[in-house]
Design a protein that fits this description.
single chain, 147 residues, mainly alpha, 2 domains, 7 helices
Length: 147
């Protein structure tokens, strides 16, 4: 198999970042020893390829951080789902029991459970957002904080 410049260009980001295996490093070094002009060209453009590799890692880290913050800001979707489900069940119960000869105990129990889930959802949302949105500058402006 013949190794071409295109293969070396493909392997260069791994080689220059130090993530290549020893065999790949040996292959790239052997090819560059045989073609010094191409080696100088790659090394001259090396800062650009390192920036591209680093930008890829930073973008990936930024995306993970964004998704984590998004999950935290939206709260716990399972609590919201149960709150909405029990609310719908409570309204269904009140509509089904519109005659005056049925006790409202079923509706009241379902409504209390729904209310509990709504309270849990909004309390968790408030706690999560307060943890995220507190900044050092905001704590410095609070009354009683003397510096």
């Amino acid at each position: 198999m013949k190794v071409t410049r295109d293969v070396i260009v493909d392997l260069w980001p791994l080689y220059s970042s130090g993530e290549a295996s020893p065999d790949t490093r040996a292959l790239v070094e052997e090819f560059l020893d045989g073609d010094p002009d191409f080696a100088n060209e790659l090394r001259r453009d090396a800062p650009l390829s390192e920036e591209i590799v680093m930008k890829g890692h930073e973008a990936d880290q930024e995306m993970r951080t964004f998704l984590k913050a998004k999950r935290r800001v939206l709260g716990y979707p399972i609590l919201l789902m149960f709150a909405m489900m029990f609310t719908c069940m409570a309204f269904g119960r009140i509509v089904a029991d519109t005659s005056w000869d049925v006790s409202p105990r079923g509706f009241i129990a379902t409504a209390v459970i729904a209310l509990g889930f709504w309270v849990a959802f909004f309390w968790s949302l408030w706690k999560i957002r307060s943890r995220i949105l507190i900044t050092p500058a905001a704590t410095d402006r609070q009354p009683g904080n003397k510096k």
